[in-house]
Write a structure and sequence with these properties.
It is a single chain. The chain is mainly α and about 250 residues long. The chain has 8 helices and no strands. It folds into 2 domains: about 30 residues; about 220 residues, no CATH class. It is elongated, with a radius of gyration of 26 Å.
């Protein structure tokens, strides 16, 4: 569970609702036509931009912003070092039965067991990284699209409300509902974009960069293992891919 994402969403939502509650009746901020224009309009326009299958998968990918548990780079580093020790002592076939927690590392180890050359291993794993970037970028781009479309739909709703208001100037009873649509659609669009879609897009982008960095560490570690580099050099290679805050503090 990502506490930062949960705390951020809860705090922002609570702030909005608290300000509404302190300012008066919450029912004044509920308007079905405004919600339809913003929510349904935004989803419809976004759907027009993406294939249906990618549209559905992008919402499933949003869960990565809230629930994401992978080993840290330091933990992966230690796992690679243990694999390297096993490889030197017992040979490639000894790696076949190793229980690994990272699927990407497991794929790299499988390539070592199968006897592929280091250059081939690097090429295969880098291609896998490229596919990962392409796949995960779809979810991020879709939420960025929602963040861009929602305020525009809010503006469209505002124009609709103003037209309705101006067309009923002779009937004061119609001015209130029309003005509500004009104002609340702008509010709904801003909230949907800046309190929901764009934070998720940014968090998914962060997750993607985090995963790519870890996979690059794995690529260099696996290739170095297959090249037969000594343990000291392997540690230096791995450490060069780990930020200072994640490196071990105890002496080697």
């Amino acid at each position: 569970m990502d506490l930062a994402t949960f705390i951020g969403f809860i705090a922002s939502t609570a702030t909005i609702f608290l300000s509404i509650w302190l300012g008066g009746s919450g029912s004044d901020f509920l308007n079905t036509p405004s919600a339809l224009i913003v929510v349904m309009g935004t989803l419809s326009v976004t759907l027009a931009k993406f294939p249906l299958s990618k549209f559905v998968l992008a919402f499933a990918a949003a869960g990565r912003a809230f629930y994401h548990r992978e080993l840290s780079n330091s933990e992966v580093r230690e796992e690679i070092l243990e694999l390297a020790k096993t490889l030197k002592k017992k040979g490639p076939l000894a790696l076949e039965d190793q229980k690994l927690s990272n699927p990407f590392l497991e794929k790299g180890v499988r390539l070592i067991v199968d006897g592929f050359k280091p250059d081939v291993i690097r090429q295969v794993l880098l291609k896998e990284i490229s596919l990962t970037i392409e796949e995960q970028s779809i979810g991020r781009n879709m939420f960025k699209s929602i963040g861009a479309v929602a305020p525009a739909m809010g503006m469209i709703g505002t124009l609709v409300g103003l037209v309705q208001m101006l067309s009923h100037l002779e009937d004061p009873s119609q001015l209130g509902p029309a003005m509500a649509i004009a104002l609340l659609t702008t509010l709904y669009g801003a909230v949907l974009a800046h309190a929901f879609a764009l934070p998720i897009a940014d968090k998914l982008g962060y997750r993607m960069r985090e995963e790519i960095a870890q996979r690059e560490l794995i690529v260099e570690g696996v290739v170095a293992m297959q090249n037969g580099v000594n343990m000291i050099m392997l540690e230096e290679i791995l450490d060069s891919h780990i930020v200072a805050g994640e490196k071990r503090t105890e002496p080697r």
